[in-house]
Amino acid sequence: MTFADHFSAIAARYATYRPHYPPALVEALASLVTPRVAWDIGCGSGQLSTALAARFERVIATDPAQAQLAAAVAHPRVEYRCASAEDSGLPDASVDLAVAAQAAHWFDWPRFVAEVGRVAKPGAVIALVSYGNFDLDGALGEALARYRDVVEPYWPPERVHVENGYRDLVLPWPAIEPPAIEMTATWTRDELLGYLQTWSATVKLVEREGRAPVVAMCERVAQAWPDSAPRTFRWPLTIRLARR
Length: 244
Fold this sequence. Notes:
- It contains ten helices and nine strands.
- By secondary structure, the chain is α/β, with parallel strands linked by helices.
- The strands form two sheets. Strands 3-2-1-4-5-9-6 form a seven-stranded mixed sheet. A two-stranded antiparallel ribbon has the order 7-8.
- β4, α5 and β5 form a beta-alpha-beta unit.
- It has a domain of 165 residues: Rossmann fold (3-Layer(aba) Sandwich), CATH 3.40.50.150.
- The model has no long low-confidence stretch (mean pLDDT 94).
- The protein starts with 10 loop residues before the first helix and ends with a strand.
């Protein structure tokens, strides 16, 4: 099966600039199961995988893009595998937690549901985690809002699931009330600009129009943020949980 590969061309940048998930998320997920085996589905370059390894005995981290896995940070309890969410190659009833972080919107949903239902143990937890845009005030917020308008036509259609909080991605098992958890990142201006260039919409924009719109955005952000002082960015996490 082919997949829409939005990130292999920027795998190194993705590994460097994507935010990492907070320990509170890992603690919340681990508290719901016996923390033996976790499956990180669509793991990218391992932003959640290594965090899970702090609480789980073993983490199997899969992604269909080998370039993403090649940029991932190694960890003795994390096993990276090149495999799709819909055809993992994992044994039946073999994981205590199956979690997809900023990835479920890319899946072939009916095939994924069948696969995760096969791989998850009875009583295992299936978790979907996502984050959208952060909001900023002032000149920097205006510069970012202007760039969002520029890239809006280039978001893949699957982005709608992020925007609507995964409400249409239905898990056919009893739901668990999710915790309220926030993700934060304290970045320099260059780190913010690096992150914006990991958006799938930015990748497509550059493919279609070249780098001029991105350069213009970088200049506007530099005008709005002329100093080198780091700033903190916050995203409320969308979390959907179900018990197999």
